[in-house]
Amino acid sequence: MVRETRHLWVGNLPENVREEKIIEHFKRYGRVESVKVLPKRGSEGGVAAFVDFVDIKSAQKAHNAVNKMGDRDLRTDYNEPGTIPSAARGLDDSLSLSSRGRDVSGFTRAAGGAVYGPPTSLHSRDGRYERRLDG
Fold this sequence. Notes:
Elements: E1 7-13, H1 19-26, E2 32-37, E3 47-53, H2 56-64, E4 68-69, E5 72-73, E6 75-78, E7 101-102, E8 107-110, E9 113-116
Antiparallel strand pairs: 1-3, 1-6, 2-3, 4-5, 7-8, 8-9
């Protein structure tokens, strides 16, 4: 079960989307505190962003709604700042763990630029994500 927060990860956004357009879309659910558009990760799929609402009820409304921008169906997931949203996991398996290095919380930096990645403590020996039993 994903912990509900006032922070959402939004995926499959149009390629040239601006923060203002994301705010305009999501303000129907409540006051948006901030939007951070993330660098595109690969040649396929859309852009992703973090959308932070002022309160959790607004984030819940947005997450439970069907969100479309243009012809794209947007994907949403709750996000705890500093962690990887579960909807984004496994989207870019082309980089080996040894080629990644820690950078900003919730990101890793590789030759191709910033990509998502959880702390290395969540990896097992074969590079797959493990579910933490201690919460």
